[in-house]
Write a structure and sequence with these properties.
By secondary structure, this protein is an alpha+beta fold. It is 45% helix and 16% strand. Helix 1 runs parallel beside helix 3. It is globular and about 45 Å long.
């Protein structure tokens, strides 16, 4: 059975863009479902019970929320395809530092 991947997102979202880039880097095909942030779909409300916001990755019916967590999930599940982080622990730490910096200082 092939993986079913659905992304609930809003195209201008920079958080969603992070997930879309990770999916593209891994070469994964997915169904994109645009969300109206002012009239949230029942699916979005059901899949993100806590925050009720995008992006949400639905993998085989199971939701994963929050863009950085989604990217980590993508990298762990499809580890046989183009790693998103360097193999070296120090270089991985540096990449995580800059991602955290961008989240806290630029967004």
């Amino acid at each position: 059975m092939a993986d079913e991947i659905i992304l609930l997102d809003f195209l201008p979202s920079i958080f969603g863009m992070r997930v879309r880039v990770a999916l593209a880097e891994k070469g994964l095909k997915y169904e994109y479902r645009e969300q109206d942030l002012w009239n949230k779909s029942p699916l979005l409300l059901e899949m993100n019970l806590v925050h009720k916001k995008i992006p949400v990755l639905i993998h085989n019916g199971k939701p994963i929320c929050e863009s950085t967590i989604i990217v980590q999930y993508i990298d762990e599940v499809w580890k046989d395809k183009s790693p998103l982080l360097p193999a070296d622990p120090y270089e991985r730490a540096q990449a995580r530092f800059w991602a955290d910096y961008i989240d806290k200082k630029l967004l």
